[in-house]
Design brief:
Number of helices: 19
Strand order of the largest sheet: 9-14-13-12-10-11
Structural class: alpha/beta
CATH architecture of the largest domain: Alpha-Beta Barrel
Largest sheet: 6 strands, mixed
Strand content: 15-25%
Helix content: 25-40%
Low-confidence stretches: 4-19
CATH superfamily of the largest domain: Glycoside hydrolase, family 3, N-terminal domain
Shape: globular
Radius of gyration: 27 Å
Oligomer: single chain
């Protein structure tokens, strides 16, 4: 060995330095995300970049061994971790190997809590479980607005109101991403029906899009810093969502400043150059699994018309790059956005491990707490609930859903829970020796049981076969025979209570006035049965509030007559008048209004103060009041603030939710509540200038316990 080489080797040995090449900058976690991204991008060949734009399989992107780029392992969501296969094993959509995980309540149930802090805790738990199962990205949350109560995926979303949906979305994403897991807000945009979702062209005007269907996505980007957005299957105003430059470039990136990557819904692409040039960054799944995906979709009634995919593959992109139909800039931009998200979430800097704790007692306890807070007490005549052993001794538990726990709806959000107790078992467990509990599913046996019991509990509603991805509901009616069962039970037992499982409104008019109480438990997750028992027996005071309006009949819903469209084209002719906005405008009495939910205690509102009374543009408006629990039980109230523009320059809804606060109060306790309105709260979208605007004028402030139960009124005047 030459003397100089020997001296260098000896010096390296003594100083502990390596003779290997220095660590490249992109592997240095001390550098900024952008510096690491640019350094790695410059080291990649065009072929390596092209490899990054399409999946390697059903739920994975391609890894790059030469440069140490890990694969992104994804999992379905948003109600829990739905893994189609164990990492490292083959995955197919037709034969999923779903690993048990905590099944949280449906999104609509989480929205019914009106508790963003709780949703943040849910997001954190989902992040922890995703990492424990070797997953880096969760395909959730779903933030599409409930336009029609018939949409099959209503249970996944957060209801009909863009403000409430935005608050839930920001909370979910923040909790999930702080754990180092990429959130994927979906489906962008105007995916509000499953019927012909792969081919339908949604026609919606600019103002309606901006005020109703985009705010939750905008909040996800601007407030929560979401790292992935999933494009939807449908067309929007003539262009497929996955190749829609107005959506993916003009709105998402230019207006909102989105820095992450857009992933297609599974096989929602229809072209190569058009998709990449419009701003789609990653096509899923991998081309190798496309035939399996087609086979999987064809198992559904009517197949999957419009199925397509396999466009952002290397073989299809390479000649377009050479010809200039796809620019080098477009390629680099797409890869840059994927890498930036991977660096930002810490994917390059951690060792992936599996086998961590999932569906632990602590995680199940959170699911139970969430389920209980989301349950809505719709009706409670004569204070029939909670069940009291002083007056009730025998309980008849009846109906099909008592012997099953429909924890969630069907489709890609369906989670395999570790535990999933049935309502009848949870009720028996809680009743103990204090009550005699008997069960019958239905028929003359159920009626006879109800006749001799002190109390009849009828469990009714839907399940994952009725509310699911890939198809819409045909009717709001309960499944065949359930309404008749409720009416027959109520006829022989005046103390009849109905517990409903659903993800959207159901018809109740035929039997509602015949029963004492109704609990809407939604699809409450794996701990839903225990949560229902907690509410029924008064261990937890119900505090859920409706995130949707329940119509008396389908004809009263906003989209009736404008859904599902004709010849694969649906026009949102109701415009901004969705949900309670529609009911207010047309003076239609709902079955139960938006924001409604009863309690076992009572609350008093007083002392409304608004400051300043004459705000200028850009000045915050403070809403202050006092809420007192005037009953004998501890409980929680959701204070809701609605605004009414008295002389709008453009047609505006009668009132709109602009702030809310969930308040926990002990019996007899009072609390000062303060809420804030910013200029966006006072604004509408002006299509003439293509931006949000607030005009001078007088605004009424309506503070209440629901959109119809307004307790306090005040106002202020906005000046330029």
């Amino acid at each position: 060995m030459p003397r100089l080489t020997l001296l260098i080797a000896l010096a390296a040995l003594l100083t502990g330095c390596s003779l290997l090449a220095p660590t490249p900058p992109y592997q240095n976690p001390k550098l900024s995300v952008d510096k690491r991204t640019e350094d790695l991008l410059q080291r990649m060949t065009d072929d390596e970049k092209l490899d990054l734009l399409s999946g390697a399989g059903w739920m994975d992107t391609r890894a790059n061994t030469r440069l140490g780029i890990p694969a992104i392992h994804m999992a379905d969501g948003p109600l829990g971790i739905r893994t189609w296969a164990i990492p490292g094993e083959p995955d197919t959509p037709a034969t999923p190997k779903s690993v048990p995980a905590t099944a949280f309540p449906a999104g609509i149930a989480m929205a019914a809590t009106w508790n963003p802090d709780l949703v943040t805790q849910e997001g954190r738990t989902l992040g922890q479980e995703a990492l424990a199962l070797g997953r880096d990205q969760l395909l959730g949350p779903t933030v599409n607005i409930q336009r029609t109560p018939l949409w099959g995926r209503n249970f996944e979303g957060y209801g009909e109101d863009p403000w409430l949906t935005s608050r839930m979305a920001v909370a979910y994403i923040s909790g999930l991403q702080e754990q180092g897991v990429i959130a994927t807000v979906k489906h962008f945009a105007a995916n509000n029906q499953e019927y012909r979702r792969n081919t339908v062209n949604v026609l919606v005007d600019e103002r309606t899009l901006e005020e109703i269907y985009l705010p939750a996505f905008q909040a996800a980007v601007e407030e929560a810093g979401v790292w992935s957005v999933m494009s939807s299957y449908n067309k929007l105003n003539g262009d497929w969502a996955a190749q829609n430059p107005h959506l993916l470039t003009e709105i998402l990136r230019s207006k909102w400043g989105f820095k992450g990557f857009v992933v297609s819904d599974w096989a929602s692409t229809h072209a190569t150059a058009e998709s990449l040039n419009a701003g789609l960054d990653l096509e899923m799944p991998g081309a190798s699994t496309m035939p399996m995906l087609r086979q999987f979709f064809n198992t559904f009634p009517g197949g999957n018309p419009g199925f397509d995919g396999g466009y952002l593959t290397k073989d299809k992109l390479r000649p377009l790059l050479a010809s200039g139909k796809v620019s080098k800039q477009a390629l680099d931009d797409g890869v840059r956005r994927i890498l930036r998200a991977m660096f930002a979430i810490g994917l390059f800097d951690r060792t992936r491990t599996t086998g961590g704790k999932v569906d632990t007692p602590e995680q199940r306890a959170l699911a139970r707490k969430a389920a209980a807070q989301g349950i809505v007490l719709l009706k409670n005549d004569d204070a029939a609930l909670p069940i009291r052993k002083e007056v009730i001794h025998t309980i008849a538990v009846l109906g099909p859903n008592a012997d099953a726990n429909p924890s969630g709806g069907g489709g890609s959000s369906q989670v395999t829970p570790g535990l999933n107790p049935k309502p009848i078992d949870a009720i028996r467990e809680r009743a103990g020796a204090d009550f005699k509990v008997e069960y019958a599913r239905g028929g003359p046996e159920a009626i006879a049981l109800a006749k001799r019991a002190d109390l009849a509990l009828v469990f009714a509603g839907n399940n994952a076969d009725i509310e699911a991805e890939m198809f819409d509901r045909k009717t709001l009616d309960l499944p065949e025979g359930q309404a008749d069962l409720i009416a027959a039970v109520a006829k022989v037992n005046k103390h009849t209570i109905v517990v409903l499982h659903d993800g959207a409104p159901v018809t109740m008019s035929p039997w509602l006035d015949k029963v004492q109480s109704v609990l809407n438990a939604w699809f409450p997750g794996e701990e839903g049965a225990h949560a229902v028992a907690d509410i029924l027996f008064g261990d937890v005071n119900p505090s859920g509030k409706l995130p949707v309006t329940f119509p008396k009949r389908i004809e009263d819903a906003a989209a009736f007559g404008h859904y599902p469209g004709v010849n694969d084209q649906v026009s949102y002719d109701e415009g901004i008048y969705v949900g309670y906005r529609h009911f207010d405008k047309n003076n239609i009495e709902p079955l139960f209004p938006f924001g409604h939910g009863l309690s076992y205690t009572t609350f008093e509102y007083s002392g409304l103060r608004i400051y300043p009374q004459t705000p200028r543009y850009g000045q915050l408006v403070q809403i202050m009041l006092k809420v007192k629990n005037t009953g004998s039980r501890d409980g929680a109230e959701v204070v809701q603030v609605y605004l009414h523009d008295t002389k709008p320059g453009l047609d505006r809804p009668v009132k709109q939710l602009k702030a809310f606060r969930r308040v926990e109060l002990r019996a007899g306790e009072s609390q000062d509540v303060e809420l804030t309105l910013d200029q966006k709260s006072l604004s509408f979208y002006d299509p003439l200038v293509h931006q949000w605007a607030a005009l001078p004028g007088v605004f009424d402030v309506l503070v209440g316990s629901s959109s119809k139960d307004i307790r306090l009124k005040g106002g202020f005047e906005l000046f330029e």
